[in-house]
Amino acid sequence: MTDTCAIDLRVRLPRPLADEVERVKERDPEMLTQILAYGMARRAIFDHLVAVGFAGDEEVSRST
Question: Which end of the chain is more exposed for a tag (fewer CB within 10 A), N or C?
Answer without folding.
Answer: N
